[in-house]
Specification:
The protein is an alpha/beta fold. The chain has 2 domains: 170 residues, P-loop containing nucleotide triphosphate hydrolases (Rossmann fold, 3-Layer(aba) Sandwich); 186 residues, Up-down Bundle (Glutathione S-transferase Yfyf (Class Pi), Chain A, domain 2), CATH 1.20.1050.90. It is built from 10 helices and 15 strands. The chain has a 6-stranded antiparallel sheet with strand order 2-1-4-5-6-7. Strands 8-12-13-3-14-15 form a 6-stranded mixed sheet, with helices on both faces. Strands 9-10-11 form a 3-stranded antiparallel sheet. Helix 5 packs across helix 6 and helix 5 crosses helix 9. The longest helix is centred in the middle third of the chain and has 40 residues.
Length: 364
């Protein structure tokens, strides 16, 4: 899969831009706040339908304008196609493939796939479980488009149960009514947990190999999936019953707190280095090696699942890595399409194409 050409209009600080991309490594050089990350963000939007920087559409539209537009020509092993997205603050997003409007997210996700690596990901290890769940969910959504609808339904079901729990503080709520929502919540939660567990299984096979090489065979990385819902020894039906029993046993406590305390919304990707929890014991260098291993593995899983490499987006991360880790990531991405940003042109003698970015203007 290759991104051949992208056009932007009124996106962030970019009034208008047309950029031709090399099938290999493309570097965008410029000072901070000139528009380099805005390009990365636009490409990510075409893959995931959301920004990795802001949840608000207004932030993506150039000041003083009402809409922003992104259009891209994409090629791969199949027929080339065009994706376009129009962003409107009130109406939301309009997405078209070859001029035909896509009305469901499941029609869009997976058409174009990326692996994003940005400075914020370097805190993936030391931050709370939410960051690691987001990493898993973003990667899975590109491989299994229906997974996004499961997440949305699960969030709505949890919100409905929370509303009933809060109502229970003031008045009696029918247990049958709550049970009705809980049964659906259990069914959806088990589906999410099983998909996450399957993805972590693949991740746990690949990431330790990368980490072993990066650490020069001095340390061992291990990954596991921690969940209130998933149990590898049970069938899906048995997991549903077990989770319903868990909800029942925590009902009084959930009523006091006003929300569901146990469920897939509390899952975590457990990461250890030499059997010690990475979150509490890993050095900064170890954390960065672990994240690097996760990201390279994410790309491999994407290729294995689809037959095509994703596009790799590296937003100003090479400057954060030492020479050894920089060499490993550039070597691992050889032959793949890469879009990366940086400030120092002298650091990118190995690339195929360099662009300059200044005040939202792109030039070769």
């Amino acid at each position: 899969m290759k991104l051949d050409h992208i056009e932007l209009a009124d996106f962030r600080n970019i009034a208008t831009a047309q950029v031709e991309l090399h099938p290999g490594t493309n570097v965008f050089i410029g000072e901070n706040a000139q528009g380099k990350t805005n390009l990365i963000e636009a490409v990510y939007l075409l893959a995931c339908a959301k920004s990795f920087r802001s949840p608000r559409l207004r932030d993506l539209i150039r000041h003083g304008e009402k809409t922003a537009k992104i259009k891209a020509d994409i090629s791969g092993e199949g027929l080339p196609f065009q994706l376009s997205m129009t962003l409107r603050e009130k109406e939301g997003k309009e997405i078209l493939k070859n001029g035909v409007k896509l009305t469901r997210l499941s029609e869009f996700l997976g058409l174009f796939r990326v692996v994003l690596f940005c400075p914020e990901h370097l805190s993936l290890i030391k931050e709370g479980p939410g960051k690691r769940r987001s990493f898993l969910d973003a990667a899975i959504c590109q491989l299994r488009p229906y997974y996004a609808s499961l997440l949305n339904e699960c969030n709505k079901l949890e919100a409905q149960r929370s509303a009933l729990l809060k109502q229970s503080m003031k008045q009696t709520v029918s247990r049958d009514l709550m049970r009705c929502w809980e049964e659906r919540l259990a069914a959806v939660s088990v589906k999410i947990a099983c998909i996450r567990a399957d993805y972590v299984k693949n991740l746990a096979q690949l990431a330790p190999l990368h980490y072993h090489r990066i650490s020069r065979e001095r340390e061992a990385l291990a990954l596991s999936y921690e969940s209130d819902v998933y149990d590898p020894n049970l069938t899906a039906e048995e997991m549903e019953k077990q989770y319903l029993s868990l909800l029942e046993s925590h009902l009084e406590s959930d009523i006091r707190y006003g929300f569901t305390q146990r469920g897939v919304h509390r899952d975590d990707l457990a990461i250890t280095i030499d059997s010690y929890p990475a979150r509490g014991f890993a050095s900064q260098g170890q954390q960065r090696s672990a994240v690097l291993s996760l990201k390279l593995s994410e790309g491999e899983i994407s290729r294995a699942g689809t037959g095509q490499d994703p596009i790799y987006l590296l937003d100003d991360v090479l400057s954060e890595l030492d020479e050894g880790r920089r060499s490993y990531i550039t070597g691992g991405l050889a032959g793949k399409q890469v879009i990366l940003t940086g400030c120092d042109p002298d650091s990118f003698g190995f690339v195929d194409r360099i662009h300059k970015v200044k005040a939202g203007v792109f030039s070769r």
